[in-house]
Amino acid sequence: MIGELEQRIEKVLGLPDPLSFSSGTAGLHAAYLALDMPPGSEVIGPVTTFHASLTPALHAGLNAVLVDVEPDTGNLCPAALEAAITPLTRCVTVTHYLGHPAAMEEITRICRERGLHLIEDISHAYLSTLNGQRVGTFGDICVGSMQDRKSWPAGEGGLFSASRPQWRERALLAGHYRGRALLLEDPELAAFGETGLGLKMRMHPLAAVVGLANAEDLVERLAARRALLERLSRGLQGLAGVRPPVVRPGAGMGGWFSYRPQIQPGELKQGVAVDTYLRRLRDAGVPAHYPSVGSLSGMPLFTCPVPLHAAAGTWRPRRCGPFHGESAYNAGRISVSVTGEDTEETIDAYAAVFAEASQALARPVAA
Ligand SMILES: Cc1ncc(COP(=O)(O)O)c(C=O)c1O
């Protein structure tokens, strides 16, 4: 089952020789170990992502550096990345946030020029592309979560792929033991195959069964979701007081993780707040809410000393604020739940409610 799922991941996502893990977090942990960086090396990542894009670095003797994101996509800002690099920097991790590809042209250039490893977290972005190239194929290592809410769910699970066999072998050793760990090609690693590195991070076969079942119609399912979300974006186009989520030229949205328009407080009538607009949507039946993914910059793991001494290691996270891009990205940001149950009619009804809310609450757009 495990092997079958891994073959399917290779076929569907175009990733070389993938490995499955028990979670995306485990896959990221294995990625940080596989790159075998000196203790205290810095990993630079976006301030806006799920924490596990960066936090497993804590358990690989590394340190995390949070940098700002771009105000339109919420993705790692190349200029902020470049400014945060120090002699300790060894690695950059990008998340293709909510499914929108990060600025890989600039980011890969920076990593190449500065000799940095690049990890892509594709948990939100299955089947997304940038100028026709699949996300996950730009960097050294790609990891994705197959947790239940992701667009390719296995219940719980993670996928991993590396552009060099040695990184794959080390990741395998990091999270597996016996069985396939004894078959590693590198004799130095294979000598540790009985125990691996002592952690069990492999996927449960039942999760592989779920992952395989969800692979069956993945492409069609994501295409149908994309069509509905594009329809909703067309419905929001030109309305005062709200903007559909930005999709940059060249960006192919595969598995949108979440659909997040942005209410424009500056365009609302005097005395009308973002909350008023949101409540009006909700009262009229649009499943809209404030998004839950927050900033890493205020989380204790990035602001306070780690409470367990044995884990603390070299972990002294650096926050390269101020995070103006993140603030601009989050201002007025709401989320609209669109599920597989929705139809074009539901979407058109949502768009009509937005139009009515804008008519009532926003100042008219200048002609
Ligand atoms: C961007 C991102 N990276 C990593 C993870 C961690 O994956 P998992 O929950 O499978 O451990 C998640 C999960 O929510 C995520 O959204």
What does this structure look like?
- This protein is an alpha/beta fold.
- The chain has two domains: 241 residues, 3-Layer(aba) Sandwich (Aspartate Aminotransferase, domain 2); 112 residues, Aspartate Aminotransferase, domain 1.
- It has 13 helices and 15 strands.
- The radius of gyration is 21 Å and the shape is globular.
- The mean pLDDT is 96.
- The site of pyridoxal-5'-phosphate has 14 residues, from helix 2.
CATH superfamily caption of the largest domain: Type I PLP-dependent aspartate aminotransferase-like (Major domain)
Number of strands: 15
Strand ordering within the main sheet:
1-9-8-5-4-2-3-14
* SSE order, one letter for each helix or strand: HEHEEHEHEEEEEHHHHEEEHEHHEHEH
Bound molecules: pyridoxal-5'-phosphate
Distinct helical segment count: 13
CATH architecture of the largest domain: 3-Layer(aba) Sandwich
**Radius of gyration over C-alpha positions, nearest whole angstrom:** 21 Å
- Tell me what portion of residues adopts beta-strand conformation: 5-15%
Distance between the termini: 59 Å
- Stated plainly, the CATH topology of the largest domain is called Aspartate Aminotransferase, domain 2
- Number of structural units classed as domains: 2
What is the oligomer described by this structure? single chain
Q: Spans of 5+ residues with little confidence (pLDDT < 50)?
A: none
User: Percent range for helical residues?
Assistant: 25-40%
